[in-house]
Amino acid sequence: MRTAVEPPQTDTMDGNTAVAHVAYRVNEVCAIYPITPSSTMAELADEWAAQGLCNIWGHIPVVQEMQSEGGAAGTVHGALQSGALTTTFTASQGLMLMLPNMFKIAGELTSTVFHVAARALATQALSIFGDHSDVMATRTTGFALLSSASVQEAHDAALIAQAATLQARVPFVHFFDGFRTSHEINKIELLSDAQIRAMIDQDLVRAHRARALNPEHPFVRGTAHNPDTFFQARETVNPYYAAAPAIVQATMDRFAALTGRAYRLFEYEGRADAERVIVLMGSGAETARETAGALRQAGERVGVLQVRLYRPFAAEQFLAALPQTCRMIAVLEQTKEPGALGEPLYLDVVTALAQAVGRGQRKIMPRVIGGRYGLGSKNFNPAQAKAVFDELSNAEPKASFTVGIEDDVSLTSLTVDPSFSLERDDVVRALFFGLGSDGTVGANKNSVKILAEDPDRFAQGYFVYDSHKSGAQTISHLRFGDRPIRAPYLIESANVIACHQAHFLERIDVLRLAADGGVFLLNTPHGPNVVWDHLPRALQAQILEKRLRVFVIDADLPPS
Questions:
Q1: Which of 113, 307, 392, 409 is most enclosed, with most CB atoms within 10 A?
Q2: What 3-state class would DSSP assign to 199?
Q3: Rg of the chain (C-alpha set)
Q4: Taking Cα atoms as reference points, which of 56, 50, 51 lies closest to residue 24?
Q5: Per-residue pLDDT tens for 178-190?
């Protein structure tokens, strides 16, 4: 039953905006240094402060841009020690520059939330695109790690993390997938200021401020310890981390009572008697859930367990969420840890299960395999999720695998059936080919928002472009229909394809993903009576074979 302070208000925005909407309102200082793909959060905070937008206490937050992410982290640390509620937004190498301050902030049990649009770290090459490499490098800092899988979840978890950190005194990294969630536009239920205010306990805010360093109330902090005391002092944080999972779940329960949207530390969806389960976190969980639902309709005993609170890892809650009938588990991760027996989440899952079997809490030890997917924003679609479930059916599944690539070096990749698709017939799917800065992406963002203004219509927009950004090829993926759209993967079959740059026709196969009977819109100076003669022969054959309806428009501005 919904008990929200006021009826829900819907809005259409990307993940970065959804998170910044909350973070700005529950903080007094935002220390920023923009880095892709988190930059929008910092830019919005700066813009809102310039416009005089107030937080929930009626004050305009101080938004300070520094000269690097290291400086931003130092500013966060200093502002927190003064008792101010403080946040920052970052990703990738920027998060790495914050590590020294993160160890101190956590060691001093200081409440804060860092919002991270998770992105690949530079290894054999730099990548501006998303995976969990950066977040996984923070595991030993002492920060709690809270994951979101969608734009709505990121919006909600930004508030849940803030409320939980004030009570737990454990700092949080709230992370969501760079680009796939940070830049996806979707329709969400927007938290009102009244709801945000109701989630923040003012007594806890006052307690945070009371812990500030103050010459009127001297307190020693930041000392140096010798071997006789350091070890003992380091262990004193244990009770705080032991209590944190229960605090986060209680905060989620309060949030559910307020908004009607319920979350769990570990969210299981599937048959109660499932034998094969995929464990993962981030936007891939949405894809895996959708795939498992289709397989269950075909009679398969499968399920998906989404991890939201990764640190502290609450083994008891994880085991409670996992069906006792489960005999095969695949742990999927968007990171690679060379030389390890497995990636981080895999090792945590194996440890939790082994300890449970050792205690007699579980009768059998499921077979657990680990796999990597989605590194550098590599697309993860239902066909790949199905390949993982199929691998779990094998008598001898690969203990360590990859999915989504063809690994012809170490032969770790799974075979994927490209014909498996879950694209819905009741959803309009459109692809728009353009060039960076030609207006295609901006126009499509506006289109998504206009379509979603209809209370009974839902829309999703995602935009693919490379590191060159301006002047490089862009592909806009738009979906809209009458039901919520939870498809965090690229369109595989499009009803509508538009090409805004006619010269693309000679270079790329723009109609490869066109559905039979679909629409092809071409921006060209050639009119409808003569355009056919200017189309490549291969394109003409595709149009005829797929029975496409072709429309042309001359939308280029005349030379000045």
A1: 113
A2: helix
A3: 25
A4: 56
A5: 999 999 999 999 9
